[in-house]
């Protein structure tokens, strides 16, 4: 009735000692993750862990610190500026100043709270 039952399947038995030694080797190798600069870094992929956490951004005038525009998300800001999403992410992450309507501006990031949507 059950052709895949371990005792009668006809498949070769797994060497338990080899399996346990492989498992011990994997566990002793250490974690594939490490913290770098407050962010989770994946060693094997050589990149940071992406959290896909939504955050709002504000476009701020560098001269007087006034908020020129607020955006619910990075894609919304990118669409408004006519640039790619990656460009806005880079500018938010590095605090790059750039010209917008002949003003030196930068982005400020705000994390969304649990109650926000």
How would you characterize the overall build of this protein?
With 117 residues, the chain is α+β, with helices and mostly antiparallel strands. The protein has helices spanning 16-28, 74-81, 85-94; strands at 33-36, 39-42, 47-48, 55-61, 67-71, 98-100, 103-111. The strands form two sheets. A four-stranded antiparallel beta sheet has the order 5-4-7-6. Strands 1-2-3 form a three-stranded antiparallel beta sheet, with no helix packed on it. A hairpin with a 4-residue loop joins strand 2 and strand 3 (47-48). The model is unreliable at 113-117 (pLDDT under 50).
SSE layout and pairings?
Layout: H1 16-28, E1 33-36, E2 39-42, E3 47-48, E4 55-61, E5 67-71, H2 74-81, H3 85-94, E6 98-100, E7 103-111
Antiparallel strand pairs: 1-2, 2-3, 4-5, 4-7, 6-7
Treating each run of at least 4 consecutive H or I residues as one helix, how many helices? 3
Percent strand: 25-35%
Distance separating the two termini: 52 Å
Spans of at least 5 consecutive residues whose pLDDT stays below 50 are: 113-117
Largest beta-sheet details: 4 strands, antiparallel
Give the fraction of residues assigned to helices: 25-40%
Strand order of the largest sheet: 5-4-7-6
The ordered H/E elements are: HEEEEEHHEE
Mean pLDDT: 84
What's this, in brief?
By secondary structure, the chain is of the alpha+beta class. It contains three helices and seven strands. The chain has a domain at 55-110.
